[in-house]
Structures are given as C-alpha cells and as structure tokens.
C-alpha cells in the first residue's frame, strides 16, 4: 500500500527532518524513524502501523541532497541490496560505522 498523495508531502518532510538529526557516525533504521512519526490525517491507523517503515523508505528514495540518506539502514542493521548500496556502505564507514 502506498502513502496517500494528500499525506505524502508532509510525511516525507517529517521523515527528512528526523533523518537530518542522525549524527555522523551513527545510523538508524527505517522502523526506528517511523516510531517518531504520527499517523497522517486521513490515513487508517492500522494501515499506518503496518506500512510506516516502508513509507519511510519511500521518503528516503525521494530525499533532497541535504538529507543524510546513507545513515538509514534496514531492520537487520544492514544495507539493503539496491542501486547505490556500495556508496551507502562507504559513507557511514568513513564516519566510523562498522557493519
């Protein structure tokens, strides 16, 4: 299920704001970020609880260049295999993160 378009912009902005707070040398998971987000208006809470981490991932895929996307990892504490995975690993490692 995708985030409804009417809630998308505000949700994405909230995700990016939280992600900008992750300090260099630390990482967070999609799910950890999702825990800080309220259910958007007009979204069923059951759907929100089921899909919020995935929606954080959607926000990260669309983030502006000033968002440290590389500091957001999957629930296993790993880099998800996708385009850009090597860069996502190299950037936090340069900050001292060990995977």
From TrEMBL:
Residue stretches making up the Methylated-DNA-[protein]-cysteine S-methyltransferase DNA binding domain: 10-97
Keywords: DNA damage
Pfam families documented for this protein: DNA_binding_1
GO biological process: DNA repair
MF GO annotations: catalytic activity
Listed name of the protein: MGMT family protein
Lineage, top ranks: Bacteria, Bacillati, Chloroflexota, Anaerolineae, Anaerolineales
């Amino acid at each position: 299920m995708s985030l409804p378009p009417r809630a998308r912009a505000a949700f994405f902005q909230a995700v990016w704001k939280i992600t900008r707070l992750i300090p260099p040398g630390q990482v967070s998971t999609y799910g950890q970020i999702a825990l800080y987000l309220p259910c958007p208006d007009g979204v069923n809470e059951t759907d929100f609880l089921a899909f919020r981490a995935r929606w954080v991932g959607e926000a990260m895929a669309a983030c502006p260049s000033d968002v440290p996307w590389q500091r957001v990892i999957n629930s296993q504490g790993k880099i998800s295999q996708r385009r850009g995975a090597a860069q996502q690993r190299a950037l936090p490692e340069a900050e001292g993160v060990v995977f």
